[in-house]
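Lecture 7 notes: from sequence to structure.

We start with a single chain of 623 residues. Read the sequence below before looking at the structure.
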Amino acid sequence: MTNNGKKTLTLSLGALGMVYGDLGTSPLYALQQTLPGEATNPANIFGVLSLIFWSLILVISTSYVTVFLRADNEGEGGVLALLSLLKRQDKKFSHLLFLTGIVGAGLLLGDGMITPAISVISAIEGLKVISPDFSYLIVPISFIILFLLFYCQHLGTGRISLLFGPILLCWFITIGILGAIAIFHNPIVLQAINPYYAFAFFYHGGWHAYLLLGGIFLTITGAEAMYADLGQFGRNPIRIGWFAIALPALLLNYFGQGANLLRSPEAMNNLFYSLSPDWFAYPLLILATIATIIASQAVITASFSLTKQAILLNLCPRLSIVHTSKDETGQVYVPQINFIIAIGTLSLVLIFKSSGGLAAAFGMAVNLVMLIVAILVMCVARQIWKWSLTKIFMVFSLVIIIDLIYLGANLHKILEGAWIPLAFAVFISMTMITWQKGVELLRTSFYMKKISLPDIIKRLNHSKLNILEDLTTIFITDPYDNSGRSFLNYIELNHILPKQVLIVSVVIENYPYITQEQGFKLTELTTGVHNLVLHYGFMQSINIPQTLILYDKIKAFPFQLNLTTATYLVEIINIAMTKKKYPGLSFWQKSIFAFLLRNSAQDIEFFKLPYSRTIAIGTYCEI
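Now the structure, written as C-alpha cells:
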C-alpha cells in the first residue's frame, strides 16, 4: 500500500471518531422514539425502517457526501467557512444571507448543549434493561459523566483523541454484528428497503405518521458535523468512513432492531439493548457509554472551533482561546463557551431526565442548520461553480423539500422543549449581530475619519522628542482602530520616541489559511518607524511575538529588531454611553455592545503578548 493510501485510511479511521460520533450513537434512541404505540404492527415497523433507509441514502449519502462536501473554502467546511467564501467572491454580499449564516452558527452552538445530554443518558439507560432496580441511577450517573467531561476540557484531547477512531470502529462493528444477527433470524425485515412501505405508512397513518418524522429525523442528526469537519479530514476519508463503515453498520442495526421487534414485541422497552445477549449486556453498556462520550467530545470540540472562527472573523467578542496542544493548532479550549454549554447540558439532563424527554427537544436546531447549509451551498453552486438554474433546481430541490418536510414535522417539538436550544441560538445570533454592528460603528464613526498613519508620523515634532537609543517599541493597533491615534497621543504626552518603532496591524482574511509569503507586508513610514501588516486566515492561531520571531529568522526585516527586550504597546477601548442615535443600532444594542467590549479578552491575552513587557494605553469613545 502506498503512503497516500495509508494516510487516507488513517484519516478515514480518525473521521469515524470525530465526524460520525453523533450519527453513530443515534441507534441508541432514534428508533425507540419514532415507532408509534402500536409498534407491533408490521406495517408501522416496515414503514419507519423504509423512511430511515431512504433518509440516510438521500440526505446523507447523496446530498452531503456527494454534493455538499464539494463546497469548501480552500478545504474548510462549515457555516462560517461558507459565509467567508461567499463574502470573498461577492463584495455586495446579501445582508439576509449573512444573517442566515449567523443564525446557523448560533444553532450549531445550541445543538452543542443537547447532543451530549441525549447521547450519554441514552447509553446509561441500558442499566434499566439489565435490571429495573438500577433505573434511579440513570440521571445521577449521566450527570456525573457529563460534569467530568466538561471539567476535563481544559486538559485537551491530544493523546486520547488518537483512540477515538479505533473505539468508534469497534462500536460500529459491534452494532453492525448485533443487527446482522437479528436480521439473520428474521430476514423478512429487509423488505422495508422498498419505498412502497414508506408511502403506505403515510397513507394509512395520516397526520400522526407525518409527526413521527420528527423521530425519524434523529437518525440523520450529525450530518452537519460531516461537513463542518471537512478541513480536518478531507473529502475522501470522510466518504470512505461513511460508505465503508458507518452507513452499513447503521443500516444493519436499525433493521436489526426492527427484526427483533417483529419477533419479540417486548423488545419495545429498549430496542437497542434488546439486541444484546444477556452475557454481553455490561460490555455493551460500557462501550455505548464510551462511544457517547466521544460523540459528545466531538460536538464540544466543534463548538470551540466554531467560536474561534467567529472571533477571528469579528462576529463574536474576543474570548480567551487556550491551545491545548503544542503540535495541533486546531485543538483549542474556550473556557467561557465550555461553561455555558456545560450549564445548558447539565440543566437539560436534570429537566428532562430521559432520552425520551430529550428527544422531544432534539432535532429542531439541527434541522434548521441543515436547511441553512443547503441554502448556502446552493449559493456557492450558483456564484462560484456557475451552475445553471436548471441544474441547481434538479440537484437542490429534493434535499430542500426533504429538509422542509422534516422541519414541519419538528415544529410541534417547540412546545415540548425544542424552544430551549432555539432560544439559546437566538441569544447567540443577536450577540453576534450586535457585536458586528458595534464594531462597524467604531470603525465608521470614529476611526475611519481620523488621519492616516503616515500623516500621524509626519506631524510628530522630532525636535521636541527625546530619542531613546536602546529601546524598541512594538505598537499593536486595535482591529477597530488602525489609525494609530493612541500611539501618537502616547508619544506626544511622554515626549519620547524609541529609536526603533514597529506598528503592527492584524488583518483576518476570508481564507482559512494564509501562507507565510502572503501574511507579511512591511512599509517604512519614516526613519526608524515601520508599519507591519500581518495577515491571518480565520482558521489560524494568532501569536504576534511568535510570528515576529519567525519573520526575523528569515531576515524579513531590513533592520535589527531586538524582540527579546522590545516593549509592546496595546490599546484598551472604553465606551461611554450617550443618547446619540445611530442607524441600525438601538440603545439596548449599544448597551450590550459596551458590556461585551468591557468583558472581552484584552489584546495582551488575545495576541499572546508578554505580560512583563506590555503597556496598555486607554482610549475613550462616546456612542
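The CA atoms of residues 16 and 169 lie 7 Å apart. Keep this in mind for problem set 3.
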